Amino acid sequence: MRKSRADAAETKAGIIEAASRAFKRRGFDGVGVADLMAAAGLSHGAAYKHFSSKQALAAACLEAATDVSVARARRARTAKGWMARYLSADRVADAGDGCAFAALAVDVARTEDAGLQKMFAEGLGAYVAALAESTGVETDTAWRMMATAVGALLLMRAGGGEEVRAACLLEPSGR
Known about the structure:
The chain is mostly helical. The protein has helices at residues 5-26, 33-39, 47-50, 54-74, 79-86, 89-93, 100-110, 114-135, 139-168. The chain contains 9 helices and no strands.
């Protein structure tokens, strides 16, 4: 029996959500379509009922993950509070539930897909604009905050830990 359009849309959304987490954890090249579909509880072939290629799935995931990240930026109220949440232990530990920009920047930089790079750049611009508006800082300050936070998050994930967090929050360690 054929699925209804609503069921198909729900399945597609589930694929995007599961694949977004997997891509953010392991990168675009670090996970195969079979693994992505298994994470969504589906067979390998299900991917191609909804997406023409792994690249099309990656683009849909980047768009969805960007939307989630921008919505989070809109909820920020202060620059210091945003930075503390961005560099929280939970965010450091779980790239799959974290910021799309920190998790996928290296993959997007290495891709030859200009469309994916353009989508990333536009999403990043929207994120920074939302961050500036929600925290009341100037746009150039929001760009510096984002660059500092993404760099710090990557360094913390690589082993820099609390020392990096403390330095980026401009608070002495241990106080």
